[in-house]
Amino acid sequence: MAKKKSSNSTLGLAVFVTVMLLLGMGLYLVFRRPEIQQTVPKAKQYFTYPTDYEEYVIKYSNEYDIDARYIFAVIRTESSFVETAESEVGARGLMQIMPDAFDWIQFRLDDDRGLTFDDMYTPEYNIQYGTYMLSYLYEKFGSYELASAAYHQGMNAVSGWIDDGTIDPEHFSVDENLDAMPSDLTRDYIYKVMKAFDKYKENAQLEEDINNGKQQNSSGDPDGETA
User: Fold this and answer.
1) How many domains does the chain have?
2) Are residues 136 and 180 in the same domain?
3) Segment 50-83, tens digit of pLDDT
4) pTM for this model (two decimals)
C-alpha cells in the first residue's frame, strides 16, 4: 500500500508541474504580445518600395541615360535605402560601392572634386557613382539583367560567361534562361532587382516625377548639371 501511495503522489506532482509550465507559457505569450505586434510594421516596411532620394536618382539617371526606376530597384536590393550601410566586404552606402569601383568610377568621370571613399556615405555622391556604373554596364551588356549581374559579380565574370557560351546575352532574362547563371547568389540578386524594377514601374506618381524631371532637364534646368 505504501508503494501505491507514493506512485500516486509522483503522478500528481508530474501533473501539477505540467499544468504550471503550460500556464507559464501562456502568460509569457500574453505579456510578449505587444513585442510581437511591434514586428508587424517592420515586416510591412521591408516589403515596401520607397522612393527616397528621388531628386538625386532622377537627376543622375537623366544625366547618364538610364531608367530611374531601375536605380531605385538596385538601391532597394543593395541597402534598403540605408545610407550608412556597409557590407562585410567593405561596400558602402545606398548603392554599396566597393573601393575599387569607387576608384574606377572617379577615374572614368574625371572627377576632380577631391572626393574620398568616405564620401560614399553621402547619398548624392553614392547615387551619382552607382548610377554612372550601372549606365556603363547596361550599355556594355545590353540588358538590365546582365547589368545587374555585372554590378553584383563583376564585369570580368559576366564577360567570361558570355565568351565561353555559358550565357547567351540574346536570350537571358528573368523569364528566359535565368537558370544559366552559374552563380546562385547572382541569379537570386538579378531576380530581386528585376522584380523590384517591375514594382517601381507600377508607381504612377514616380513615373510622373520622372517625366517631369526629363522635361526640366531638356529645358536646360541647372538642376540637371553634375554636382
Assistant:
1) 2
2) yes
3) 999 999 999 999 999 999 999 999 999 999 999 9
4) 0.76
CB atoms within 10 A of CB 177: 14
The C-alpha atoms of residue 155 and residue 49 are separated, in whole angstroms, by 28
If asked whether residues 33 and 111 sit together in one domain, one would say no
DSSP 142: S
127-140 mean pLDDT: 98
> How many CB atoms are located within 10 Å of the residue 209 CB?
17
In a domain, 107, yes or no: yes
Residue 207 located in a structural domain: yes
Q: Which domain holds residue 16?
A: 1-42
DSSP, residue by residue, 64-112:
TT--HHHHHHHHHHHHTT-TT-B-TT--BTTTTB-HHHHHHHHHHHT--
